């Protein structure tokens, strides 16, 4: 009887003992024979730790051992702090700092935070993420290194990249056992509390050791210090891909593809504490040293991972550090596009018009008169003289950027507009290219032989018409119909006026689901002249997780393909860094002598490696002696110097290439002399103001016999003159030619009616 009683008590004791086993503070009756003492003979010391996270005088070591057969295993980080800190504080700080390390946590339980899974990007492809229960439709990506669960379902998670370190479990796969060693301890001991309760000591060690299939694994005697994670801090060597991102789940984002071929995801969010852009980020552009991101709405209400940034977000173009964000963009409505007009002013295009933006003070301004009531604002370009704006229902608007007034309208239904290398302006319709003279606004049509270009104002995106900075050529993607893109990249030779409608084929056209362009889809690298094409998979729904970026040479050869992490990125437009400033040629003189009229062609003396030279804005910053010299820049980008006396003047010229500005000083020695007849004609007649909205004044010392106005088609318009003034208020907006006959000569000059 006594023996039976003793045996019963031993069984009861064993049951009670087993019942007291705690994994991360959680009582577990299902785990038996757990070794709670684990001695390691590692010779690693704090002096060997290479990557320290945090600051402070206290130090602790953090070790993760996966026991998955992949090496190196048993990775070691260091953590520094002041005051009090827990094991959870250490894990989260390291997960946030080291983007290679990620975790699966169940936070807020009665026992604190449970660690269900830990991973590490072993192969460096930046594919950290998980699938839950094999659900490939909705991949999960870490924020601050954490993927959250709301239950102990850790066994259901698998890594997106099978080559990474990843172990997770609770009831089936095994579990993460927690081992600690404080300075007073001889060996590592199994922690009966979780990371939330664990109080760190200066000199302590924490080891997370995965018990595969619930089998004990001794703490490794070989631990590998993790090399420091070096975040990307400069964004000049590569290009950006701006993403609409997944509506109702995540706000807009931007990825960066560096010149080493690495895809760096959510670079703006990584730099700015998980802040994103607004909802459906359609457009991005770099002007000067700033990156402007435009979203349709201010925020996506369904996104709880990333803080929304607004319809307009401005960042440092080289570091991605946030500068400013705007939820509203005034009378423009919802966001569409942005254009830098000069170093002080930008235009914000929206669903209802264009508003001014003060670049210096970062303030949204007033509506540009004449830009509302024309549907959505689409693409905008800045030539050396004017701004051209595509509208949904109001044709193409021509704006004088000095006065911010609409001076002309080119009627028609257009989708996009660009400027070519030679300075010509081109807009595209469904089956026509329209050449627009950049100063007279005269148009010439070039029918596209067989294919079509179909844009989408219903769900606006930046157009697929693009241009080369090095060849005088345009490119776009053909269309099958309004709902389906084609499979060919089309090239148009601007010089020869010829079409190549099979220049290059979009990859992945075989099989049930083919690759299709998304968003703007096609852009040209201004420095390498390579074509960058982004595609997704047809079929809708989960197919949109599949995304590729293809690179073509300028001869149409596919040279590279990158596959993005599975996710609903919905890429909107590729943007290239503006790394170079404009350069003035050494053929440009530093000093000239003028005794009559001298003309210098500025188009040939200024260039920019990563921007169109023809679009560089030329202006006169200052003239030190206006009494002896007149200096103006005409519509042909020519500097016209006219002597008015004897002396020396310093003319400071300013060259603005996409917001990067350089100045050049020209010293002019001016002398007066008898002018030739042709030269007299150039300066004996003046008209002002130009542009004008009502009255045009004629200034001349000669007797005016008659004045006639012609439009650009050659049609004559009677122009009664009264005391040297002509009333032009009834003319439609545009450019005209004024012909004035005096008692000594005949003069012709252009003017603009606005």
TrEMBL record:
Keyword Signal found: yes
Residue ranges of domain Secretion system C-terminal sorting in the record: 687-752
InterPro entries named among the record's database cross-references: DUF5074, Secre_tail, WD40/YVTN_repeat-like_dom_sf
Signal peptide range: 1-19
Keywords noted in UniProt: Signal
Pfam families from the UniProt entry: DUF5074, Por_Secre_tail
Protein name: Por secretion system C-terminal sorting domain-containing protein
Provenance organism: Chryseobacterium polytrichastri
